[in-house]
Amino acid sequence: MKLSRYFLPVLKDISSDAKIKSHQLMLRIGMIRQSSAGIYSWLPLGYKILKKIEKVVREEQDKSGAIEMLMPTIQSSDIWRESGRYESYGEEMLRFKDRQDRELLYGPTNEELITQLFRDNIKSYKSLPLMLYHIQWKFRDEIRPRFGIMRCREFLMKDTYSFDLSKEDAQKSYFRMMLCYLKTFQKLELKAIPTKAETGPIGGDLSHEFIILADTGESEIFLDKNILNFDPSNLKYSENSFLEISNHYSKYYSATTEMHDKDKFEKITTKKSQMIKKGIEVGHIFYFGQKYSKPLNAIVNSKDGKNVNVYMGSYGIGVSRLVGAVIEAKYNNNIMKWPKSITPFHVAIINLGKKNDSISKKAFKLYDELLKNNFEVIIDDTENNPSNKFKNFDLIGIPFQIIVGSKNKDEEFEFKELGKDTKVVKIKELINILEKEYKIVK
RNA sequence: CGGGGCAUAGCGCAGUCUGGUAGCGCAUCUGGUUUGGGACCAGAGGGUCGCAAGUUCAAAUCUUGCUGCCCCGACCA
Fold first, then answer.
1. CA A273, A276, A278 angle in degrees (round to 5)?
2. What SS3 class is residue A230?
3. Distance separating alpha carbons of residues A280 and A319, to the nearest angstrom
4. Which has the closest alpha carbon to A375: A296, A290, A438?
5. Of A264, A262, A312, whose CA–CA distance to A286 is shortest?
């Protein structure tokens, strides 16, 4: 991508309305613009990052065995009346009517819709277990949206729904998804802690919030330091793994303010390992059994010919919220360095030459070479002052920069990892380094 | 939803108290000088001062209503 042809409106001044780092940075580097309260446009840079996060989430879902589909944003009130939530969901649900005076709503979640799809199409235990997910925009009419995309009204969410024949099977699905979430957040270079949670309007009797630690978080979290020592990367989707996860996270204490039990905390956690931190909720998983399958009549035949209401769970990840959450967690010493899995570009070429001079030609030669090797590259081909270019790219947070200027010999480039010293390398070595960093295979 | 604040050029703001020709910085455009960490000079374009009504010879400025946005609180993925 040539910067001169891109849409990247970087600002020097931003409104004092933006209170937290992620909101400020996203405005400054032209990732988002507010459209109305709690509703945002995603500009090319922000959208690229959003899509990359979506991709990580999708890949991990697929690996877990969940199957992707897509449900609409607009739903009819009918099924919500069947479940009883049309009345109980309250003001957070955006409702409206079409020209035939039919009551519609912009979906805040999809339990009803998916349960309807299930009941109309699945009749046998042989089709179970089943896990379906989609990544779709949701709308919840927050009383007071704030903190940019962290707490907005329109947001992108991945929601998975599990269907099982028994409570035992359903709980295996629950832990399957818990493992999937741990792997997902690890890919995003985040430490996410599953924490026992209240079930709220979704309902049910087993629920965990996934909290990542960040100073600007809205919820306070009490935890045992040891809970952070868990590496899910090598765990397979097996019952042994589920047991291991369950054991680890029930062994060590973690709770948000609402669920915090001070006496228990003091009792089972040593003074030394007690931590009280701020956190951001980035995911939430629920087991709710037959809460929806009963009122909506989602029934399968069991092996012995009995009718059984399926046991269900639902599992959400705030994909758009994660964009802000990653910034809050990763922003350090005034530097935002994007995790490699979601960086908008693999590498930025800072070309200090003038149009068509030998330096520019060298920079563009490198640009072509990197593209040929399947890297996502952005090249600054503007006539801005060097200092301007340096500042902007430091701000944008692409992990690697290559500086092409008059200081270097013909064959050499300055290679810099954000926040570290530059080193002089030749093109072969450069490509090797990047291939290793991004695990790109030709 | 309760309490408070704001709305002036693309962005950030001053001007409003005390009514009298619309300002500043950044950005943009033109020309020139610069070019290794947010350059400089000269010039230019860009505004029905959120909307509506009222008071007045005269309203960005005073009054009323409306709309939008933000902050604090309670609520929430």
1. 140
2. coil
3. 13
4. A438
5. A312
Q: How many Å apart are CA A316 and CA A324, to the nearest integer? A: 17
Q: In this structure, are residues A145 and A206 in contact, taking their beta carbons and an 8 Å threshold?
A: no
> Å between A422 CA and B70 C1'?
42
d(CA A306, CA A57): 37
CA of A18 to C1' of B64 (A): 33
* Residue at token pair 């400054």: A28
Nucleotides of B under 7 A from a protein CB: 1-2, 11-13, 25-27, 34-39, 68-77
Q: How far apart are CA A318 and CA A285, in angstroms?
A: 12
What distance, in Å, lies between the first and last C-alpha atoms of chain A? Answer: 20
H-type alpha helices, A100-210: 111-121, 167-187
ipTM: 0.91
Q: Token digits for A306?
A: 């009995």
Taking the CA of residue A7 and the C1' sugar atom of nucleotide B31, their distance in angstroms comes to: 27
Q: Closest Cα partner for A398 from A330, A348, A332, A325?
A: A348
**Amino acid residing at A187:** K
Domains identified in chain A and CATH numbers: 3-330 (3.30.930.10), 347-438 (3.40.50.800)
CB A120 within 8 A of CB A300: no
* Residue where the block lists tokens 């059984």: A308
Task: Provide the residue-wise pLDDT of chain A in tens; the chain has 442 residues.
Answer: 999 999 999 998 888 778 889 999 999 999 999 888 899 999 999 999 999 999 999 999 999 999 999 999 999 999 999 999 988 888 889 998 888 999 999 999 999 999 999 999 999 999 999 999 999 999 999 888 888 999 999 999 999 999 999 999 999 999 999 999 999 999 999 999 999 887 666 656 689 999 999 887 888 889 999 999 999 999 999 999 999 999 999 899 988 888 888 888 888 899 999 998 889 999 999 999 999 999 999 999 999 999 999 999 999 999 999 999 999 999 988 899 999 999 999 999 999 999 889 999 999 999 999 999 999 999 999 999 999 999 999 999 999 999 999 999 889 999 999 999 999 999 999 999 999 999 876 5
Q: Which residue is it, tokens 């009918």?
A: A78
- Residue A101's identity, in one-letter code, is D
Nearest nucleotide to A12 (CA to C1') is: B26
Residue A58: CB atoms within 10 Å? 18
What are the φ and ψ backbone dihedral angles of A415, each rounded to 5 degrees? Answer: -115, 130
Q: How far apart are CA A425 and CA A430, in angstroms?
A: 6
